[in-house]
Design goal:
It contains four helices and six strands; from the N terminus they run H-H-E-E-E-E-H-E-E-H. The chain is of the alpha+beta class. A hairpin with a 2-residue loop joins strand 5 and strand 6. Helix 1 packs antiparallel against helix 2. The protein is elongated and about 80 Å long.
Length: 152
């Protein structure tokens, strides 16, 4: 989380620097300099504080009925996805994930994607495989129920 946040911070600082260099400093806009300074300070504070809170608030649980994910920094978001609504599962690793040997499990439903992040690679594969098995069980159960209904 820190690495991704620091990289995002560097991009934002680069953009602020470019705006200052090409627009605010040549036109000598005093309020622009003040606003840029405030943005730089807030960006640096966010880069080092938000990963701590995001890490300590991030939780996920998986049971037979649903996947429950809680995450957030200032506002905590909770996603509850019923297992029977899953359409697609995949594991993903970006460059930063590969550097730290972690992975994500991306779960796609009709309503969008939900990601279980910051998992060890082996744990991500285990979760994905367990969810695949559970989805297959649900499909078999639904087929059997449909066949029974058609026979009646």
């Amino acid at each position: 989380m820190y690495t991704a946040n620091v990289l995002a911070c560097l991009i934002v600082l680069f953009i602020i620097g470019a705006v200052n260099y090409f627009w605010i400093i040549p036109k000598n806009i005093e309020i622009g300099k003040f606003i840029s300074g405030v943005l730089v300070v807030l960006t640096l504070i966010d880069a080092f504080i938000s990963p701590y809170f995001r890490y300590h608030r991030y939780r996920y649980s998986i049971n037979d009925e649903c996947i429950d994910i809680r995450e957030g920094y200032l506002f905590v978001k909770r996603n509850i996805v019923p297992i029977e609504r899953l359409h697609k599962l995949k594991t993903a690793k970006g460059p930063i994930d590969q550097m730290f040997k972690v992975a994500k499990v991306v779960v796609t439903t009709g309503g969008g994607d939900v990601t279980i992040a910051f998992l060890e690679e082996e744990r991500a594969e285990q979760i994905a495989e367990s969810l695949r098995r559970r989805i297959n069980e649900i499909v078999v159960e639904q087929k059997e129920n449909n066949e029974r209904k058609q026979q009646v």
